[in-house]
Amino acid sequence: SASVSVYHEELKAAAFYNETKAFQKDKAIRARIEPKFGEAKRSHGMARALYRCVEKVDLQVRLTAIVLNIKRIFTLLKELKASTLAEPIAA
Asked: Which of 62, 65, 61, 83 is nearest to 73 (CA)?
């Protein structure tokens, strides 16, 4: 026999939310952030916690975030330097 999921109301509410402007705004924010989560997981060991204790896992997450921010700072500085060098110097 067919039955309705116990989550039917929540699924309807989520489907309604997916049609709102608030969802579009949230989706745009997530689209900018999600690649950083992927990089952390793919390149910096965040796919699996290295430790069991909550404090140590928290430290792993924070250190990974620091590394990602430092990488971003260097990328921005490199781009700034390249754009500065590309501009002709007015005499």
From this structure: 65
For 59, the token pair is 């430290």
Statement: the pTM of the whole predicted model exceeds 0.90: no
pLDDT value for 58: 95
DSSP type of residue 90: P
Percent of the chain with pLDDT over 90: 73
The terminus-to-terminus CA distance of the chain in angstroms comes to 84
Could you give the residue ranges of the DSSP H alpha helices within the chain? Answer: 8-17, 21-43, 54-86
User: What does the pLDDT read at residue 88?
Assistant: 66
Dist. CA 26–CA 36, nearest whole Å: 16
